[in-house]
């Protein structure tokens, strides 16, 4: 337990600052209701910052993230005339990259946040927008699994080589990175105590490096987690089964790029990216974020769904509570989730992505509704 928790907040670009503001509002409400104390340090970052300053964030920002108890990230990616702002070659990467990689990909690697945890959970009352219609496709009791995405390697090495006639980007899979992420997934399956199963999703029928990922998964599972069932799927087939039979899954572990794709796919089952939260978790540090992007065309309109950011804040509280054995934070996380569940179920104060433009509430109204529920729940 700590007197005060130091949270670094990186609001970023586009709708990032708006949804972050609502997540912070919820954090402050938890502070008020449960007697915990947070020191919030906001650091500007992203593509818009790069345009103005020629750097993705102020010098020393990485060290500030390292010193924090936890990091919260909004979204990065800025556009000018519909084109994403990229860094200039050599500044600071050899090749142009989306300006904002330092806080996202950089923090993941430098802080060793090796597991990207993305719960796929459908809350009661949420419908999924398909071809403009709001449909009930899945039942909440069937959609409750967690994708654990390896977060430091695979196709995310940042390397691209010239080859005759084109370019080549390598896929790197190491034993060390694979062991730690699969152990994380197995431990999570134990803790969830649901199906007692971990599914390894990869493209090992084609990609040799993924075959190695699968081998390490099998070895660690058999040797260290005999109580957990080992399950396998090729990534293409998984995309289909994930939609058709989500109830088959409990914990899913995947190489980085595969995990990136299947988690956006899974977001559809939760009611869309507006509800999808993730945690980048290591042994010493963690960074939480809504998994949606910066959605530049919706920026500044108080329109975006803040639920994903609020649920990411819930994950932050949960992680902090465990790390520092602070029951108040665990309680806070629980209450935030219950407040979100209740606002979703009531269906009165929801953004356009969940109910359409005509009935839509503003981003800030949703934040206020969650805080109101939270206060009511805390008072019992
Ligand atoms: C995500 C995002 C990032 C990724 C982008 C913004 C680099 O899509 O967090 O899933 O590919 O990891
Ligand atoms: Mn993604």
What does this structure look like?
The chain is an alpha/beta fold and 380 residues long. The chain has two domains: 1-116 and 283-380, Isopropylmalate Dehydrogenase (3-Layer(aba) Sandwich), CATH 3.40.718.10; 127-270, Isopropylmalate Dehydrogenase. Helices cover 42% and strands 20% of the residues. The protein has helices at residues 16-34, 47-53, 61-67, 101-110, 175-192, 208-224, 235-244, 256-270, 307-323, 327-346, 352-355, 363-378; strands at residues 5-12, 38-42, 70-75, 79-80, 83-84, 115-121, 128-130, 133-135, 144-150, 161-163, 166-168, 197-202, 229-234, 251-254, 277-281, 286-290. The strands form four sheets. Strands 2-1-3-16-15-6-9-14-12-13 form a ten-stranded mixed sheet, with helices on both faces. A two-stranded antiparallel sheet has the order 4-5. Helix 7 runs parallel beside helix 8 (256-270). It is globular and about 60 Å long. The mean pLDDT is 97. Residues 104-105, 260, 291 line the site of 3-isopropylmalic acid.
